[in-house]
Amino acid sequence: MERDIEAKAWVSGVFDRAASTYDEVAGAYHDHFGARLVDVVGVGPGDVVLDVGCGRGAILMPAAARVGSGGSVVGVDLSPEMVRLARQRADAGRVAARIEVMDAENLDVPDGLFSVVLCGFGIFFLPDPERAVAGFRRALAPGGRLGVSTWGVEDERWSWEDELFRRRASSSPATIRSSQ
Questions:
Q1: Candidates 3.40.220.10, 3.40.50.150, 3.50.50.60, 2.170.130.10; correct CATH number of 2-167?
Q2: Mean per-residue pLDDT for 11-24?
Q3: Residues 46, 69 contacting (CB under 8 angstroms)
Q4: What's the CA gap between 133 and 43, in Å, rounded?
Q5: In angstroms, how far apart are the furthest CA atoms of the chain?
């Protein structure tokens, strides 16, 4: 448990440091795949969406546009700097969203509140992804939809992530487990 807390603090620090240029690493990569996940899952008017690991808002923004005034979006991220930048982006786009610092493995949200839970390119950073997914399912309303995205083939533009994986002694960005 203490190891997980230390690992999460370290990961949060890495993302805090990367936050200011995070979306510049691969151009519109995050925005493209954020909108694509919203499309694939079928986010629509009136949905209540939870974006776990929201980063700077690549999923949050298109989800908010889709849900309209009859729905709502909540974005959570472990990195305070990512949350600050997502809030800044939402404010600039006049998007009403709740965005806050929160641990994906310990979601502090009501049971069954969300019609959609999304996690874009984040599940593999978690020490206990099964625990996180159990929390995602707990947060989903009956009949709700869960969408998670991950990478396929490695892209050298993401080599900065090697620091994360070396630190966690992982040979692959598949799933990081606290037992490693």
A1: 3.40.50.150
A2: 67
A3: no
A4: 19
A5: 45
